[in-house]
Design brief:
394 residues, alpha/beta, Rossmann fold, Helicase, Ruva Protein, domain 3, Ubiquitin-like (UB roll), seven-stranded mixed β-sheet, five-stranded mixed β-sheet
Length: 394
């Protein structure tokens, strides 16, 4: 799974990326500090099932903090988007190519109003313009791909009587478009798929736009929410747009994670508080910064928002579920690690899908599955639920 970070230059994308991954990236107060895309591992937070079994887990990948399992996902931070990106302006072609394989987008906005459409310092800039701008550029991107081939493509479809959904899925395979996305786009637009050659340019654009919404869902990270103007802009954004909008302070999250990494504080990403462990090691500037985060961010919003945004993108926007391989009588692997793995699977995944996720041989030789929590046998068509513990019998 790949989540792409998108937005205008200088909105805090790279800070969000570093806060989520602790990867070394350049963070600078000028446009296009990010030119080449950064690719690193972030984590979603899942309530671990180890306490259900009275055990302490030993993750092979990710980590577990006080019953909170952090499961790895891929994040990509790309160059900031400028007007005309879909036509190749700025770093447009690179930006769009870098995001082809993204399953969802986190749109990072500067809700402080202090960065304009070019990523330069401003006063009272409304970040809602950035939402409209990104939608337009992404729609033009999809529309451009369709229009290049549409006349020939549509005629071939009609003459050969190919299945419209399958044919479009093949055309968009590089963008992670699946048949379900196309079916939903067709239903929502109400276009006649029996005669696609008769579609007008406006109808092609309408279909491309809907397909983009289905295949690249967006959540908005209302960044720099700890500023005075941010709350006003946040309310305006929520009134105007139908996206999930979560206030965040990527800078605060980065400060907390780095302090926790250095052993200065105890902090679990996504929590609404932290504990200072080595007060003597903190200088006055650091103490004031931590107090600011506690009072202006954690107390106001319940968290810095970064972990909430990652979790929402994976578990709500994409509707993935976290599933643990677990034996009814044995939770350890061959090396003695307890519940070493946790897998993320797309919605409507079955026990048989899970078997293949673990190993091809498990899927090929599947006999049955057992729910390790309930000890009930389930068949290959059993639809997996979030935090299931499943044993595969081959």
């Amino acid at each position: 799974m790949l989540i792409g970070l998108v937005g205008r230059p200088n909105t805090g994308k790279s800070t969000f990326f570093k806060a989520a991954t602790l990867a070394e990236v350049e963070i600078a107060n000028y446009p296009f500090a990010t030119i080449k895309p950064h690719h690193a591992i972030g984590y979603v937070r899942v309530e671990c099932i180890d306490k259900d079994f009275g055990k302490q887990c030993n993750p092979r990948e990710g980590f577990c903090l006080e019953g909170n399992r952090f499961v790895p996902i891929e994040l990509k931070d790309v160059a900031g988007l400028v007007p005309g990106a879909s036509e190749g302006k700025g770093l447009g072609n690179q930006f769009l190519d870098d995001l082809r394989e993204a399953d969802a987008f986190i749109l990072v906005l500067d809700t402080s109003g202090k960065t304009n459409e070019e990523g330069k310092p401003a006063e009272n800039y409304y970040s809602g313009k950035d939402v409209e701008f990104l939608e337009k550029e992404l729609d033009l991107w999809y529309n451009g791909i369709l229009k290049k081939v549409w006349k020939t493509f549509a005629r071939q479809l009609e003459s050969s009587k190919q299945n419209f959904v399958k044919a479009v899925a093949n055309q968009f395979t590089g963008l992670k478009v699946i048949e379900e996305h196309i079916e939903r786009a067709v239903r929502k637009t109400g276009l006649d798929v029996e005669k696609p050659s008769s579609w007008s340019e406006d109808e092609i654009f309408k279909f491309a736009s809907e397909l983009r919404k289905e295949s690249k869902p967006i959540i908005i990270a209302a960044n720099k929410s700890d500023t005075d103007k941010a709350k006003e802009n946040l309310e305006k954004l929520k009134e105007e747009f139908d996206y999930k909008i979560i206030p965040c302070s990527a800078e605060s999250e980065l400060a907390l994670r780095e302090a926790a990494r250095d052993g200065l504080i105890k902090y679990i990403p996504g929590d609404d508080n932290f504990e200072i462990l080595q007060e003597d090691e903190l200088n006055e500037k650091q103490k004031k910064a931590l107090e600011f985060v506690k009072g202006n961010v954690l107390k106001s919003y319940g968290s810095t928002g970064v972990q909430d945004i990652l979790n929402y993108a994976v578990f709500e926007l994409l509707e993935y579920v976290a599933v643990f391989p677990a034996g009814v009588n044995k939770l350890e692997d061959s090396e003695g690690n307890v519940l070493p793995d946790c897998h993320l699977l797309p919605p409507k995944s079955t026990a048989h899908d899970f078997a293949y996720k673990i190993h091809k041989d498990f899927g090929d030789n599947f006999i049955k599955a057992i729910n390790a929590k309930t000890k009930q046998i389930v068949g290959k068509e059993y639809e997996l639920k979030h935090r299931d513990a499943i044993e595969i019998i081959t």
